[in-house]
Amino acid sequence: MAKYRLTVNGAEKTIDVDPSTPLLWVLREELKLTGTKYGCGISACGACTVHVSGVATRSCIVPVSLIGDRPIVTIEAMANDPVGRAVQNAWVEKDVVQCGYCQSGQIMSAVALLKVTPNPTETNVDESMGGNLCRCATYVRIREAIASAARQIKQGAA
Amino acid sequence: MFALHRLLASVVALGLCVFAITVAFAAKSSHQNTAAGLAAWEQVYSVLVSPRCINCHTATNYPQQGDDRHRHFANVVRGPDGHGVPALNCISCHQETNADSTGVPGGRNWHLAPLSMQWQDVNDRPLSSAAVCRAVTDRSKNENMDGPALLKHHEEEPLVLWAWNPGRKPDGTARTLPPISHQQFIAATRTWVEAGTPCPKGK
């Protein structure tokens, strides 16, 4: 076991866990931030996506010992983020969600995309969201929602 | 007078002989040097086309993984600068060191080599020794590296060094290493560079 100080959604947290513990389980089990989901456990589905230093990161395969002092942002903080808010609004507007299990990861990836590429092309969306799987196949609505969020951000509505 | 002429002629003849022998030795030495350089290059090439290296020197829009060099899973793409795309960057998974507990390899600035340094064709077949050598020594393609800079690159670049410390796979077994040790790789690179980075002839 080892102690780690993490900055999660702007707050400092201290945890005492095995260094090999994936960040996902630190978030869910130690910090009770259960919005981030366990999907495949091998970074193949994107359900566990969080932001580490602003980079969309697959938390299921990153041991907590490799996080260092990089700030972590999870789905729970998206309502306080202008781009996150726009994406969540668009998700509601387009009624994207079916079962919902993968959607926090989808939203975290969409936010990461729009922060770097505010006016994404269809190729941008396909490439950036290509690592996020949805068993309900909500992909068409996800694309529409990202386009809607981009418009909202452009209009300053977020 | 006649004896003096004969003496001078003998001296000139002797000088010419020495010169010819020197030139012959120099040519032979140069030939041997080039031969040694070419042999050393083949050792270097054996490393460059091993999976730990060539999997990120692709000619395509994606990296490869595994000893069978299959396409990287999760729809990973190259992106504009070889670092992936937003939300699916290389560092979305690959951290600065190997994550042996989860089987994800890592190293500083994990990324794909530029397309100018592709060592395989678009059908994922490794290029020939001559073609890779031409690319590696072309300063318009290799970030303007001359021989000594190539040697330094092989000695110090973290992602080159990673090939000999590739960590464990998700099943816990060790990834395979290049065919020769890093020490042998550096020795071969040095021999090749000191020979003037000769390349094999051919396509």
Give an overview in words.
The complex is a heterodimer of chains A (158) and B (203). Chain A has 158 residues and is α+β, with helices and mostly antiparallel strands. Chain A contains five helices and five strands, in the order ββαβββαααα. Chain A has two domains: 73 residues, Roll (Ubiquitin-like (UB roll)), CATH 3.10.20.30; 78 residues, DNA polymerase, domain 1, CATH 1.10.150. In chain A, the strands form two sheets. Chain A has a three-stranded antiparallel sheet, covered by helices on one side. In chain A, strands 1-2 form a two-stranded antiparallel ribbon. In chain A, a hairpin with a 2-residue loop joins β1 and β2. Chain A is globular and about 45 Å long. The mean pLDDT of chain A is 97. Chain B is mainly α and 203 residues long. Helices cover 43% and strands 4% of the residues of chain B. Chain B has one domain. At the A-B interface, β4, α3 and α4 of A face β4 of B.
What's a quick, concise take on this entry?
The complex is a heterodimer of chains A (158) and B (203). Chain A is built from 5 helices and 5 strands.
Topology:
The complex is a heterodimer of chains A (158) and B (203).
Chain A: E1 2-8, E2 11-17, H1 23-30, E3 49-52, E4 55-58, E5 72-73, H2 82-93, H3 103-116, H4 122-129, H5 139-154
Chain B: H1 2-48, H2 51-54, E1 64-65, E2 70-71, E3 84-85, E4 88-89, H3 129-137, H4 147-156, H5 158-162, H6 182-194
Antiparallel strand pairs in B: 1-2, 3-4
Describe the structure using short key phrases.
heterodimer, A: 158 residues, alpha+beta, DNA polymerase, domain 1, 2 domains, three-stranded antiparallel sheet, 5 strands, B: 203 residues, mainly alpha, two-stranded antiparallel ribbon, 6 helices, elongated
